[in-house]
Amino acid sequence: MIVVPLKTLDIISHKAQCEFMRITLSIPDEVAHRFQAAVPARQRSRLVTRLLEQELKDRDSSLAAACRAANRDKALEQEIDEWQAFEDGIEE
Q1: Could you tell me what percentage of the chain is helix, strand and coil, using 3-state DSSP and rounding each to the nearest 5?
Q2: Dihedral angle computed from the Cα positions of residues 52, 55, 57 and 60, in that order, rounded to the nearest 10 degrees
Q3: How much is the pTM?
Q4: Which residues contact 24 (CB under 8 A, 6 or more apart)?
Q5: For 22-51, b where at least 16 C-beta lie within 10 A, e where not — what string?
Q6: What are the tens digits of pLDDT across the range 19-41?
């Protein structure tokens, strides 16, 4: 098991303030051994941070694309309009 601190950057008044969070990740032994062999100790956190940032960016982009597609869906728009026009007699 490898403990990897994650770096968070918080920019306030043009000053960068770094905070670190130590987390524990469970990864297969083979991957952990390859990682330790391939990446020098002082570069591991930076590499994991970069990979996580890219993955999160990709996921955010995918979610945004899905929202844009849903917003272009005329059938979905019509269904939403029908539900919003529904009168159930209950006061909000």
Answers
A1: 60, 25, 15
A2: -120
A3: 0.53
A4: 1, 3
A5: eeeeeeeeeeeeeeeeeeeeeebbeebbee
A6: 888 999 999 999 999 999 999 99
In sequence order, the 6+-apart residues with CB closer than 8 A to the CB of 35 are: 2, 27, 44
Residue where the block lists tokens 């993955």:
55
Helix (H) or strand (E) holding 67: helix 44-72
Determine the distance from the C-alpha atom of residue 19 to the mean position of all C-alpha atoms in its chain, rounded to a whole number.
18
> Residue with structure tokens 């469970």?
26
Rounded Cα distance, 1 and 26, in Å: 6
Instruction: Centre a 10 Å sphere on the Cβ of residue 52 and count the other Cβ atoms it contains.
Output: 13
Which residue reads 């272009």 in tokens? 72
What is the number of alpha carbons within 13 Å of residue 32 lying toward its C-beta? 10
